[in-house]
Amino acid sequence: MRRRVEHLRGLGKLAVEATKGVTELVQEMQGAIGGAPARILTAPVYASIKGVTSVIGGALDLALGQASSLLEESSNPAETGVVLAALNGVLGDYLADTKSSLAIEMRAHPVDRAKATSKVLLFVHGSSMNHASWKGARELGYTPLFVDYNSGLHISTNGRRLAALLDEIVSGWPLPVEEIAIIAHSMGGLVTRSACHYAEERPHLWRAKLRAIVFIGTPHHGAMLERGGNWIETILGVTRYSAPFARLAKIRSAGVTDLRFGNVIDDHWKGTDRFALETDVRSPVPLPNDVACYAVAAEKDALVPFASAMGEHANSELNLGFPADRRFIAKGMGHVGVLSDESVWEQVERWLR
Fold first, then answer.
1. Burial class, 39, CB count within 10 angstroms (exposed 0-12 / middle 13-18 / buried 19+)
2. Cα–Cα distance measured from residue 290 to residue 273, given in angstroms and rounded to the nearest whole number
3. 119-124/107-108 β-pairing
4. Which partner for 39 in 31, 141, 248, 283 could form a disulfide, CB atoms 3.0-4.6 Å apart?
5. Does the pLDDT value for residue 39 go beyond 60?
6. In sequence order, what DSSP letters do the residues of 84-128 get, joined into one string?
7. Exposed/middle/buried for 149, CB within 10 Å: 0-12, 13-18, 19+?
8. Three-state DSSP class for 69?
């Protein structure tokens, strides 16, 4: 009974911290978008919200409501998209559970049907990011297609949704799809592996058309930084738009805690305490058969260890076995910088062409 009470007390504390954190970052966003007058006029309102939150944790929805209104008022769609992606990375599971309008629904961005070809190249972004992270991407002889998704959900949940979405894409494509290739960054690589697993478990049309996957900085066997919430603190500190969300590092979403060991299927996380420092109990999920899979690791990646990015594991059953000619190291690059590195895209082009 005592343990249950302590658990509930802990959850209540997390709710309070989340509410205060979201309230503070919304206040920062208000000041950034509205300027000094907005900061002066709204300061008493936010002070009141934070004061009430210090007593009870029930104001999280109120704070999120303020965030929703603020994002709607923003005149910069790109900035709004980055902030929304960051919020989903941190609290995406909560947003989905409460049916918040801030929750991102998985979707593929429209393409010019007149320019569509029979070869599709799907780009899958990483945790707390969106399609804007692919600014340095190349078409590579394919029709590029960018996906957005709620990175706060379990990776296996997004894997199933991506598998279903790809069927919709193939069915609605302007002409018969002959070939699909996927380039995935960070968590996006795990979501892609999950989608392949579920597409083989319950056959999907697109799976037979998949020819290649390029994994860039993917934590196939997890990231130690996740254990202390440092993943969120680091990844969100990359841009000034998402930096305020770093204060919510302790309120980690299901998607982020999946990064501890690289969970890609339901069995990897069901029945476990996702915040506990448990040992790795994953069952093997090999790379998809009959698909050319490539791995890119960033030399100065502070989030994903080299061995994890290369799929290496002391347990031979978990080792993904990327061949030497299907591996590439981006010299001097970090976890996000690797996406705009010319040497990476030149190598990817050689692989896919």
1. middle
2. 35
3. unpaired
4. 31
5. no
6. HHHHHHHHHHHHHHTT-TTSPPPEEPP--GGG--SEEEEEE--TT
7. buried
8. helix
Place of tokens 């705009």: 340
The per-residue pLDDT for range 42-98, each reduced to its tens digit, is: 444 344 334 433 333 344 555 566 666 666 766 678 878 887 888 888 888 988 988
Whether CATH 3.40.50.1820 fits 107-227+234-240+249-352: yes
Listed residue (30, 35, 87) closest to 64, CA to CA: 87
Distance CA 315, CA 51 (A): 51
Instruction: Return the minimum-mean-pLDDT range out of 22-26, 295-299, 345-349.
Output: 22-26
Tokens of 282: 């994953």
Amino acid at site 192: T
Percent of the chain with pLDDT over 90: 56
CA-to-CA separations, 309 to 1, 125, 291, 326, in angstroms, rounded = 42, 15, 18, 12
To which residue do tokens 């692919």 refer? 134
* Pick from 290, 293, 291, 271: nearest CA to 281: 271
- Indicate if the alpha-carbon torsion angle 262, 169, 210, 183 is positive or negative: negative
Residue 20 phi/psi, 5-degree rounding, is -65, -40
Fill in the amino acid letter for 146: F
Domain ranges of the chain: 1-75, 107-227+234-240+249-352
**Could you tell me which residues come within 8 angstroms of residue 6 by beta carbon, excluding any fewer than 6 positions away?**
none
Pairing of strands 143-148, 107-108: antiparallel
Q: What is the DSSP code string of 281-350?
A: -PPP-PPPTT-EEEEEEETT-SSS-HHHHTT--SSTTT-----GGGEEEETT--TTGGGG-HHHHHHHHH
Q: Which residue has the tokens 């476990």?
A: 272
Buried b (16+ CB within 10 A) or exposed e, 256-266: bbbbbbbbbbb
Placement of tokens 């009959």 in the chain: 290
Measured from the Cβ of residue 167, the count of other Cβ atoms closer than 10 Å reads 16
